[in-house]
Design goal:
alpha/beta; Diaminopimelate Epimerase, Chain A, domain 1; single chain
């Protein structure tokens, strides 16, 4: 009897036990699937971030690999290109600037000013103290100097750009393309050095220096004051008086004047159009995005 009751109690106890295995398995499966989804999301984000970093590094490295001299027209020898690159890199390190010299066969009918702007912004813009580019289109017989906003303060459009043109244009016209590029780099070095030494760009008055315009104003004011004082002194003299007319200075009955007048009848006026003369300008203007510079033909 006791043995029978014990068996009945065990069966009842087994029937009252909850389905532990099903509950435990269900909860564990949901948590596992959520964890897997989170890991997959993190993994995808990590892969995307890695791809973006690699692409950014590649673009920066590509921009940094652009050499200062780009001879796409085949005008320079390999040795000349290496010599110019080494010289430009030395000037760039000394002043923390960017210099570009680019030779192309043609700009393909585009505005050379816009082409030079795009060229500077794309390949030579990453500098702390300014960037400048010389673009020469051989078949078009045109050249353009382009500066960014920072370099424009050091090499002004009014004085600095004409100085650079005078430095290399004669060599460019003579077909000495290496000499033109070399003179251009020397001119940039001198103009930037002038700015760093004097605190003002070439062609402008440095602080504390002689100002010819101010000196001229002082001379004009001094002359005006002197003439005014002289006139006052003459007018205050008792034995000197101004005559009302010039005839008052002559002695009477010594000169005889006769008066004769002509009568105007008519006039004949013929009008014809005046032809306009043609000409060429010395390069387009800059200013978009803070760009400066200038150019012309050779």
């Amino acid at each position: 009897m006791n043995y029978f009751l014990l068996l009945v109690q065990k069966k009842v106890a087994k029937k009252r036990q909850p389905p532990v295995e099903n509950v435990t398995f269900s909860n564990g499966g949901d948590a596992g699937r959520a964890s897997m989804r989170a890991l997959n999301c993190i993994s995808c984000f990590g892969k995307w971030l890695a791809v973006m970093i690699v692409a950014l590094n590649f673009s920066v490295a590509s921009a940094a690999q652009v050499p200062p001299v780009n001879d796409n027209a085949g005008l320079l020898t390999a040795q000349q290109v290496d010599t110019l690159n080494n010289k430009i890199r030395g000037v760039q390190m000394a002043h923390k600037i960017k210099i570009g010299v680019v030779f192309v066969k043609s700009v393909g009918g585009r505005d050379i000013v816009k082409v030079s702007n795009e060229l500077l912004d794309k390949n030579f813009a990453n500098s702390s103290n300014g960037s400048i580019v010389l673009l020469v289109a051989i078949n078009d017989r045109k050249y353009e100097i382009d500066t960014n906003a920072v370099m424009r303060d050091k090499i002004t459009d009014f004085d600095g750009i004409p100085y650079l043109k005078d430095a290399f244009k004669s060599s460019l016209s003579a077909g000495d393309y290496y000499g033109a590029a070399d003179n251009f780099v020397d001119g940039v070095d001198k103009l930037v050095t002038h700015y760093e030494t004097n605190g003002a760009p070439y062609g402008t008055r440095t602080p504390g220096s002689f100002d010819p315009m101010a000196a001229m104003m002082v001379v004009v004011i001094a002359l005006f004051i002197g003439v005014t004082i002289r006139s006052w002194l003459i007018g205050s003299m008792s034995n000197v008086r101004h005559a009302a007319e010039a005839i008052d200075y002559l002695k009477r009955q010594t000169v005889k004047f006769t008066e004769k007048r002509d009568t105007f009848l008519f006039m004949n006026v013929k009008r014809r159009p005046r032809g306009g003369g043609g000409g060429s300008s010395g390069g387009g203007g800059h200013g978009g995005g803070g760009h400066g510079g200038g150019g012309g033909s050779f």
